[in-house]
Amino acid sequence: MLPRVLLIYIAALLLYCGSTAAESTVDWWESATLYQIYPRSFMDSDGDGVGDLNGITSRLEYLKEIGVTATWLSPIFESPMADFGYDISNFTKIDPSFGTLADFDAMIAKAHKLGVKIILDFVPNHSSDECEWFQKSIRREDGYDDFYVWEDGILNAETDEREPPSNWVSVFSGPMWTWNQQRQQYYLHQFLAKQPDLDFSNPMVREHMQAVLKFWVNRGVDGFRIDAVPHIGEKRFANGTYPDEPVSGWSDNSNSYDYHNHIYTKDQPLTLEVVYEWRKYLDEYKVLHGRDTIVLIAEAYSSVEVLSDYINNGSHVGTQIPMNFNLMYLNGYSTARNVEDSVRGWMNTIWPKHQSANWVVGNHDNDRLATRMGQHKVDLMTMLVHGLPGTSVTYYGEEIGMSNVATECTAIYCEDRDPERTPMQWDTSKHAGFSTGPTTWLPVSPAYKLYNVATERGVARSSLAIFKGMTQLKETSAFKSFKEPNGFTFAAITEQVFQITRTDSHSEEYRILINMGNNIEYLHGLAKKTMEYVLLSPHSPHSFGDKVDLSQRIYLMPYEAVVLRGDAGSY
Ligand SMILES: *[C@@H]1O[C@H](CO)[C@@H](O)[C@H](O)[C@H]1NC(C)=O
Ligand SMILES: *[C@@H]1O[C@H](CO)[C@@H](O)[C@H](O)[C@H]1NC(C)=O
Ligand SMILES: *[C@@H]1O[C@H](CO)[C@@H](O)[C@H](O)[C@H]1NC(C)=O
Ligand SMILES: CC(=O)N[C@H]1CO[C@H](CO)[C@@H](O)[C@@H]1O
Ligand SMILES: [Ca+2]
Ligand SMILES: [Ca+2]
Fold it and tell me: How far does residue 471's CA lie from ligand 6's centre (Å)?
């Protein structure tokens, strides 16, 4: 007979082996359904026509209903709203238009009760020029003198006038340097002049920004989405000068951001260092307070090679989720092969190193999916981004097929970003159920009676039903086994048909077939197995529960997308 101790050891070993099975090695964020809320436009609780925190709180059940794991809120902090909250005047204060800190606490308490995580937008690169820190910096107050990037500029001997320290152009066009009359120096701003850049080479700045993270994790926040990451650090020579950036050749307009190659103002070593520091801090916080992983999502329009370093450079870890914007470059003419190229653009570089993927299809800076690719492609893309392994990121309203709405510019800088920021469409009542007030800050879509949550809830093949169906599938063992060998495959199997397979290799397999084109597609002998239709795009001629023998010829109608389920194995 085996000694008792050994038996216990074996039992523990079995338990341990059991717990290392596919699902348990997947942390919550790795296959999460993320949902971006633009707070001004989600739900208005007090009738002033602007969305707010109590509005969000009143709609949290909806997020639960549609299978959202975590929602990230665009900035809700005190702001003069020159860039609608991306110009923060106080990083630890809720803007009164959104509510109070007590409202925030109530929101997070209810979200956690429902099992929905809350992620905040963290905008470290810059503050508002109205922030007290900047005002103190202008006055060179003790400790704040070097809080921002200040420079004398270069004296032009001929004109005897001061010129900016370098040729850098801001993201929103025009010089990246603005003269401050009071301090008699230039300050740097990668975005608007009302958004001065903090100087992250100053340890005091880093301390202050870490304190901001601490303030919010102490209040229960589950992660941060870091805004404009690549822009955090700038190159400065040891002698205090700033090197000019070379001309790119992509633009003839010297005031346009595209005019230069941004080798000194993007993705600098200092930026990586700072991201690693935040991750280290949050990982330590997690252990100390027994919390779930606190996630860092990075907004970075950088190459996959650079994004890989933001995740982990071999010795340091950084962001878990550097947003993958590849799919946003698809348009109405994109074929299945284009989709495959786009997906491979991520999977070939990032997946082998990090086994991590995320798929963003929209945000508040880009045309809505329905506008970019066509209304008939919305459901196809929903199946794609939830069918691929990893984390999906959905911008509010995409799940019901909202489109851009014609609007007039309301911010200092628009470049027409308002059309994708209009109020969420909840039902067929006045203002689509968004507000009970007389007006809304942006117009409600004229199409809201067709595209809204209440109406789509009652329809079996609506965009909303497909979205819900896909988030439910993400909870199955087949979808959670994406780190296993053969756990997933993806490919364009014809010019227009994209296929994804997901399996746990022992119980079930799912197969997603998406016809991106406007022709009927015939597929021959896909596999030696019979499967069953479990999700169908709106105009599919097939029926739920119908069987299909994949060893025979099957077909997909134009723009048809389906999910099939069958037993694992036997190809
Ligand atoms: C932000 O607001 C809080 C609370 O109102 C206040 O205590 C703090 O000093 C403010 N911070 C800044 C930088 O203005
Ligand atoms: C500052 O240093 C850089 C790099 O070493 C050099 O190219 C530049 O000429 C220097 N500028 C001044 C004003 O000393
Ligand atoms: C990773 O980043 C850290 C911090 O910036 C740096 O010290 C280290 O040399 C880097 N390691 C590699 C392998 O690039
Ligand atoms: C997608 C996104 O968050 N874009 C923001 C990037 O940062 C600038 C400046 O903070 C904002 O204006 C954008 O909206
Ligand atoms: Ca309001
Ligand atoms: Ca910066």
Answer: 37
The ligand 1 atom at the shortest distance from the C-alpha of residue 89 is 14
If one counts the domains in the chain, the total is 2
| pLDDT score of 323 more than 90 | yes
Domain boundary residue among 435, 451, 473?
473
DSSP label at residue 418: G
Best CA proximity match to 44, nearest among 422, 457, 428: 422
Same domain, 348 and 290: yes
Same domain assignment for residues 505 and 416: no
| Token pair listed for 28 | 């919550």
Are residue 342 and residue 488 in the same domain, yes or no? no
3-state secondary structure (DSSP) of residue 29: helix
**Is 158 annotated as catalytic?**
no
Residues 310 and 453 reside in one and the same domain: yes
The residue segments making up the domain with residue 359 are 31-127+206-233+268-473
Distance of CA 450 to the CA centre of its chain: 27
Give the pocket of ligand 4 (CB within 6 Å).
83, 86, 123, 191, 227-228, 299, 363, 365
pLDDT in tens, 9-18: 444 444 443 3
Among 421, 445, 473, the domain-final residue is 473
Tell me the pTM.
Answer: 0.93
CA neighbor of 497 nearest in space, from 479, 474, 478, 520:
520
CATH at residue 115: 3.20.20.80
Mutate-to-test residue for ligand 3 from 313, 317, 319, highest number of ligand atoms within 8 A of CB: 313
pLDDT at residue 331 tops 70: yes
pLDDT by residue (tens digit) across 415-465?
Answer: 578 899 999 999 999 999 999 999 999 999 999 999 999 999 989 899 999
